[in-house]
Amino acid sequence: MTASGHAALLLAWLFSIGGFATLGAIAVVWMLLRPRSTAPRRAVAAIVLLYAAASTRVVPWIASRPLVAGFHRFADSGLHGGSAVVILLGGGSFTVHQAYQRLSVLDQNSAARVLEAAHVYRLFDSAWIVSSGGATSGFDLEPVGVTMRDALVELGVPLDRILVESSSRNTRDEALLIAPMLRTLHADRTVLVTTDIHMRRALATFRAAGIDAIPAVSADPLTSASRMRSFIPTIEGVRFTDDVIHEYAGLAEYAVRGWLRFSS
After folding, report:
1. If you compute the radius of gyration of the chain from its CA atoms, what whole number of angstroms results?
2. CA distance 110 to 93
3. Which is deepest, 63, 67, 201, 204, by most CB within 10 Å?
4. Cα 8–chain centre separation
5. DSSP class per residue in 18-29
6. Which fold has domain 74-218?
């Protein structure tokens, strides 16, 4: 892993509940050891204010605007009809185990991507969907590509029109593994489905792998939530901050590695 990759992991940890708890505990211990010093009190105040901002959804929303500029829902593009391959990029999923069975479910972002992919699929006369995403390394989990395939079938997409890529660990892997699959399908268009903040990195990664796809961003899964929740600290705000930081760090790492091409 590159230095930017390690930095991304560190930032992801810092802007998490674990990071807040750890830094907060350190600052409190410092304050107990130096009760007369103003420095630890300032540190506690700074940590609280920082995480209050990071957990308020409107703050990362503003920070994410450069990532999403220029992207829109595919239904508004007018590029319908004919044949297409819809590439559905995996997000997160959870696998719950019991004694003799297990159940895998999608997180909110992955569910939103699945809904968009199913919608885009229906806009073409003939289409395939490539459901992409492996399992988290080191865990006995179902690959997210498989979990998304099952969700697509529940939404009415025929099983025989879905191809699964279940070995990838990141966006770069997905681009390299899907490229040879596309060459056998001979479709008029290739449509790439992912969340809006991930689209810039994903599209540039696929272009670098020789795939000039049309972007189709999924809807914000929290669109139906009260607007007031965007202005108060919530766990969704922390997760959104983590996602935005991950994307900026990912862009930096992929650029250093030469894995991006921004023009078609």
Report:
1. 21
2. 7
3. 201
4. 14
5. HHHHHHHHHHHH
6. Rossmann fold (3.40.50)
Cα gap 193→260, rounded to integer Å: 18
DSSP 218: P
Place of tokens 């699929």: 121
Count of CA atoms in the C-beta half-sphere (13 A) of 58:
8
Domain regions of the chain by residue span:
1-70+229-264, 74-218
Nearest 5°: the CA angle 232, 237, 240 is 155
Q: What is the pLDDT of residues 234-261, one digit of tens each?
A: 888 888 998 998 899 899 999 999 999 9
Question: CA-CA-CA-CA torsion for 31, 36, 41, 43, nearest 10 degrees?
Answer: -70
pLDDT in tens, 47-79: 889 899 989 999 999 999 999 998 887 877 777
